[in-house]
Amino acid sequence: MSNSSNTQTVSPPVVLVDRWLAPVQRFVHVEASSGIVLLTCTAVALGLANSPAAAWFASLWKTAVSVSVGGFTIAGDLGHLVVNDGLMTIFFFVVGLEIKRHMVHGELRDPRKALLPMFAALGGVVMPAAIYLALQWGEPGQRGWAVPMATDIAFVVGFLALFGSRVPFGLKILLLSLAIVDDLVAVLIIAFVFTETIAWSWLALAGVAFGLIYVFQRIGVRSIGVYAWVGIFIWFAFLQSGVHPTVAGVMLGLLTPARAWLGEAGSPLQRLEDGLHPWVAFGIMPLFALANAGVLLEASALAEPVAMAVAVSLAIGKPVGILLLCLLAVRSGVTSLPDGVTWPMLAGGACLAGIGFTMALFLNSLAFPGAAFADAASAGKIGTLAGSMVSAVIGAIVLSSALKR
Q1: CATH value at residue 394
Q2: SS (H, E, C) the chain
Q3: Is residue 12 part of a domain?
Q4: Domain total for the chain?
Q5: Which of 162, 238, 289, 352 could form a Cys-Cys staple with 245, CB 3.0–4.6 A?
């Protein structure tokens, strides 16, 4: 008589590193799918902006919006107040959560492993800005030097997904960490470069609210609703202070506890990131693309100096800067390439890092605000689209060749 009924299947123990990598794998999966949605919304925005419905589509995002609470009124339009100032703050809040997770559990936790993505990000930030300034120095478009500095990880991961499991996980982690550092640099630029006047009284009130959040955490307040209301006040205070409210989103993300509270399975950071990331990836980012990617395409548009400067900085400056600094870091012995990653693979990934869509368009809107810079803003969008497209094509070709080899 068989005793198979008494046999019990023993599940393998959950290794600590697997628990740390699980959020990364979920993140990569969501970003890969999000890239397709983002691309679709970009195509829709471009199609409408170049169709008979162009006037209606442009006026839609200029629809007046206002909110009054007590004696305070916030007024603006749908595109800027709701999407760029409001919903993008949630996007940056998730960015802050991702930065915090990488600093606590990810590649940025180990100083030696963090060196390579930091070197890569430094090269990918400095070289595009330097090329842009060289092409636009002394011109009105000089204000846009920060536009080609950031990497859109959703599109990058989406293109990596086309190659399936052939792409080493180390390359995905490297590019993800690079994009995280890029985002951090972009936030600092938003805070210190694109803030012209500061109402210090409002900023002080925001500081008091941040202190209140810290006190709530120390005394064990666990209600997400309480933190959400304080966060809304901080957003409003930043909006009134003159500092872009998206900076508040990142700071709130960095303040979120990365350790589980007593008696709870997951940390607040993990639960918030898991809960918000799909909404950001499939809702906020596509809506941002619809509101910001619609630009009139003309044969001579790419010849505009600002458009050419952005496109060249993304397609050439980004990969050259990343590869040069990575080569310097590896050859000097301070760090090494991830396991299974070769230099040709890194070259393909560096080219894909020139896809700067979401953050580049956002920085473009800050660098060229209002009607006075409308032409430069339009040229910056065209340069971003062209540079990102060239980066995607070249990166895919180079990476495909490297993986075959």
Answers
A1: 1.20.1530.10
A2: CCCHHHCCCCCCCCCHHHHHHHHHHHHHHHHHHHHHHHHHHHHHHHHHHCCCCHHHHHHHCCCEEEEEECCEEEEEEHHHHHHHHHHHHHHHHHHHHHHHHHHHCCHHHCHHHHHHHHHHHHHHHHHHHHHHHHHHCCCHHHHHCCHHHCCCHHHHHHHHHCCHHHCCHHHHHHHHHHHHHHHHHHHHHHHHCCCCCCCHHHHHHHHHHHHHHHHHHHHCCCCHHHHHHHHHHHHHHHHHHCCCHHHHHHHHHHHCCCCCCCCCCCCHHHHHHHHHHHHHHHHHHHHHHHHHCCCCCCCCHHHCHHHHHHHHHHHHHHHHHHHHHHHHHHHCCCCCCCCCCCHHHHHHHHHHCCCCHHHHHHHHHHHCCCHHHHHHHHHHHHHHHHHHHHHHHHHHHHHHHHHHC
A3: no
A4: 1
A5: 238
